[in-house]
Write a structure and sequence with these properties.
The chain is α+β, with helices and mostly antiparallel strands and 111 residues long. It is built from four helices and three strands, in the order H-H-E-E-H-H-E. A three-stranded mixed sheet has the order 1-2-3. A hairpin with a 2-residue loop joins strand 1 and strand 2.
Length: 111
């Protein structure tokens, strides 16, 4: 296969628009999907009881808020000394949100 043929076939595979120029999956996308996956992975990895982790999402004005609930024994692990772990989680989630064009806010909730 020549280089031109490889480029042409790759272009055909990567197109997502149909004849009317609309994205078929547009209605199926979750706003903040990447940051949600990131915060879920991070908090489940840090917590000693990952099955007790609950992450509520709330979308407002183009921003997504994540409210994290963890077991009482995991609060210190997720917040960290002087809040360093919590701030690191917020930074990484904000970067993932920026990649998707979404502002994020991460709150660790004490039940």
């Amino acid at each position: 296969m020549s280089d031109e043929a490889a480029v042409d076939s790759a272009d055909d595979v990567n197109t997502i628009d149909d004849e009317d120029g609309q994205d078929d999956d547009e209605g199926n996308r979750i706003s903040g999907g990447t940051p949600l996956a990131v915060v879920t992975y991070l908090v489940h990895s840090i917590a000693a009881e990952p099955e007790a982790v609950i992450i509520n999402t709330e979308e407002r004005n183009g921003a997504v808020r994540f409210r994290i609930h963890v077991a009482p024994d995991d609060m210190g692990r997720v917040i960290g000394r002087r809040g360093r772990v919590a701030q690191a989680i917020r930074t990484v989630v904000a970067a993932a949100g920026a990649r998707d064009g979404v502002q994020t806010n991460v709150d660790i909730v004490d039940d």
